[in-house]
Amino acid sequence: MPDLEPRKVALVANCLLNQNAKVCQGAHYPGVVTPVVEALRSRGYLLQQLPCPELAFAGVRRWWAVYEQYDTPAYRDHCRRLALAVAPLIEGYLRRGDEVVLIGLDGSPSSGVRFTSSRPDWGGRPNRPVDDWQVVRGRGIWIEELEAELARRGLPTLPATGWALDMGRLDEADARRELEEFLDSRPSADDSRGDEPAAS
Amino acid sequence: MSSDARGWRIALIPDTVLNPPQQALGTLPDVLRVLEANGYGVLHLPPPGAHRLLLAVIADQVAEYAHHGYAVVAIGVRAAPDNGLHWRRLAPLLRRRGVAPPPRHLIDPNGDIAVESRRLSSFLAGYDLPQEERRRWRV
Known about the structure:
heterodimer, B: 6 helices, 41% helix
């Protein structure tokens, strides 16, 4: 029998389930970012992995880059293609009545939600000896294009946050606390808190 | 500072494995946990349906990994449509990108969970690219 109970669905940035998508030196876990998955699963969220926009554009051996370097018509076209690929699934969840949240990657030029990376003078020979890029408020380019595609379909803006993996340093405990606060502030959080595992 | 923790191994998994429906709970091993324990990353395949563009996008990603020293496998479920892997569509998409379809491991939903979990774990632990390929890429 079809189960039409509203569900909770988390759209997660690709690398939260697959750290192999990160730029070289950017992976903090072998594969799955366990604390993110635990926080979501323990609250009853289904997971929907988003494609990694940088991987299929600049490749697994790409250099580090900032927002301004990816802000090109070709990269935005690529992101729009990815958005067209996943938007039907997201639209399906929303039309079905599911609660959908977006968990991006703060500090990322592509998948940032609260923060992205900026350095207008980056470019040319990749010889920056220090991490002199800045974390600035704002979306990454992929998230901008994904949200634009959802808006074109007349869908509401999704509640969203980011896991602070690309902020120059990762404090896992802090990142986890922030994610849990975000999830527990959702209106549906009370429904599932303290549920028996088999309750429906 | 320059360390990187990536595991260089990735598993394509069906939606029904990442998000088991209520009625399947208790019939499948916790695949995500087994993948984590073995250091694999996940590429999530969509639920049954056309998903033509999304499968092409996933094939692009698999090709990028396969061409640069990453080991990719697929974990299917016996009895699920096309094993949950969209294989009839995905395999040709991969071939067109110059990639041999990755080795597949099928979970038996009617099997004993502990046994299936061990079988999966030993498949994952035992798979990687040849030494020569690993040396070439993984510096």
